[in-house]
Amino acid sequence: MGKLLALLAVLCLSQVIGAERIVNCYWGTWANYRSGNGKFDVSNIDAGLCTHLSYSFFGINDNGEIQSLDTWLDYDLGFINQAISLKNQNSNLKVLAVVGGWNEGSTKYSSMSGDWYKRQNFINSALNLLRNHGFDGLDLDWEYPNQRGGNWNDRANFVTLLREIKEAFAPYGYELGIAVGAGESLASASYEIANIAQQVDFINVMTYDFAMASDGQTGFNAPQWAVENAINFWLSQGAPANKLVLGVGTYGRSFQLSDSSQNWPGAPCRGEGSAGSYTGSTGYLGYNEICQNNWHTVFDYDNAAPYAYSGDQWVSFDNVLSVQYKMDFALSKGLAGAMIWSLETDDYRGQCGETYPLLKTINRKLRW
Question: pTM (2 decimals)?
Answer without folding.
Answer: 0.95
